[in-house]
Amino acid sequence: VFPQDREAGVATFEVPVRDAKAFFMEAIGPYSYEKLANVEAAGMGGGMEHASVIFYGARSVTMEPATNLVTHEIAHQWFGNSVTESDWDDVWLSEGFATYLTLLTTEHYRGRDAFVAGLKRSREQVWSMEARDPTETVVHDNLTDMGEVLSGLQYQKGAWILHMLRREIGTETFWDGIREFYQRYRDSTASTDDLIRVMEELSGEELDWFFDQWLHRTPSPAVEGSWWYRSTSGELEVELTQTQAGDPYVLNLEVGVTGPEGAAVRVEVLRMTEKSGSFRLALDVEPADVVLDPNTWALVRGELQKRRPE
User: Fold this and answer.
1) For residue 303, what are the CA distances in angstroms to 123, 152, 220, 299, 300?
2) Alpha-carbon distance 204 to 174, whole Å?
3) CA angle (84, 48, 28) in 5-degree steps
4) What is the phi/psi pair of residue 307, to 5°?
5) Which of 130, 177, 143, 116 has its CA nearest to residue 301?
6) Which end of the chain has the lower number of beta carbons within 10 A, N or C?
7) Do 174 and 165 touch, CB atoms closer than 8 A?
8) Would you report the helix, strand and coil content of the chain in percent, each value rounded to 5?
9) Dihedral (C-alpha) 223, 103, 159, 302: value to the nearest 10 degrees?
10) What are the per-10-residue average pLDDT scores of the chain (310 residues)?
11) Are 46 and 61 in contact (CB under 8 A)?
């Protein structure tokens, strides 16, 4: 049922429904149900992803833009409904997937800049949630109180875990894994371990370390760093220190080197397995700046400062 008498309502429903469903069918796999109805409902807010019949609170969809809400609920038809988490501890398989698929739809239809802007908003939300409750993790440990099933981290941090997985194994392999996961568990249930097994099979990599640190640890890592260029040796020196409490994360951090007027010179990936690390990169010219995570792939707080060596 579409609000045909309101032009804004038609726009907020029809365009996202058509485009999001087409994108998910092409990128992930077939739609599992006979129809997709979108119902504007009184007495509720947000959306509820009933299989094949999505309900939206009237105020939520008549206030433009509702594109992200509509796309999120349509994404649940693939993950959350057709593929359902086998235990509430793994609810991120529903909400994290729908949140990241919404961002991927933005990337597909609106481009990289809009996608990155959404990622940065989500990252700020993760940090705010972790600051409020530094003990909360994405995956629950034998949840007993259903009132605590959704802390918020399952949405934004879950999405960021999928984004970082994409960086770790490559975009093409990531999409192959998403399609295989959907095909294998379509119209059934799945666990986080099932997802890990699929992604390991498709990538040929061991990924327990990746999922363990991001799903079961909190807070997210923080990095302080500095850089200096030694013209005598033609080397860029970068020092990084993880400042969060506890053991170090294993991090593959991009460092971007820029020249005059902000022109990109190169991007290097620095792997951290300890709390602190020093790195040297051969460089022909002195950089104007060196920045951490220039392409927005890391759920890491921090920045690099230029320093003069002692």
Assistant:
1) 15, 26, 15, 12, 9
2) 12
3) 45
4) -135, 160
5) 130
6) C
7) yes
8) 45, 25, 35
9) 10
10) 35 64 96 92 83 86 70 96 96 97 94 95 96 92 76 95 98 98 98 98 98 96 96 94 96 94 87 97 92 97 85
11) no
H/E segment holding residue 178 = helix 171-185
With left for phi above 0 and alpha for psi between -120 and 50, is residue 262 left, alpha or beta? left
Burial of 11 (0-12, 13-18, 19+ CB in 10 A): middle
- Alpha-carbon separation of residue 238 from 53, 62, 268, 296 (angstroms): 53, 50, 11, 19
C-alpha neighbours within 13 Å on the C-beta side of residue 217: 18
How many distinct helices (H) and strands (E) make up the chain?
9, 12
The whole-number pLDDT of residue 105 equals 94
Tokens representing 77 are: 């038809």
pLDDT of residue 250: 98
Q: What is the DSSP letter of 263?
A: -
Q: What's the pLDDT at 19?
A: 87
Dihedral (C-alpha) 208, 213, 217, 221: value to the nearest 10 degrees? -170
Is 21 in contact with 29 (CB distance < 8 Å)? no
